[in-house]
What does this fold into?
Amino acid sequence: MQNGTDLYALDISGASFTKACGGPCTEGCVTLARIGADAWALGDSKRPDVEPLRFTTEELDAAGVDPARFGLGA
It folds into this structure.
């Protein structure tokens, strides 16, 4: 398993972010990308200039974020 420091060492320049929306997404959405075997990047489409936060699968689960809602498998 990765630790928080290792997650930020991963290159996410080629990551493919997917939106999960509860509505029409007119104001922006949370975005999620798998960046490793046990690593995820969580971003905000309203603020694309802000670096996404990074989490392990366990941390994402603890925060109540389900990758399946984004069409991604954990």
Summary: The first helix runs from residue 4 to 7.
